[in-house]
From TrEMBL:
The lineage of its organism: Bacteria, Pseudomonadati, Pseudomonadota, Alphaproteobacteria, Hyphomicrobiales. This is Uncharacterized protein.
Length: 46
């Protein structure tokens, strides 16, 4: 695998992770669920 293909694959994989994360967050927000980040940051803001 060339370095260009590896960089493109990495970019696509990271983009998919970000898009899925935003989808899960917005689905939780639309159903009046509190988003939980697992680190207590959102709980500390409330």
């Amino acid at each position: 695998m060339t370095s260009v293909k590896a960089a493109l694959l990495s970019f696509v994989m990271l983009s998919a992770i970000v898009v899925c994360g935003l989808g899960i967050y917005s689905a939780d927000a639309a159903n009046n669920h509190q988003a939980v980040d697992g680190y207590g940051v959102t709980a500390a803001l409330r």
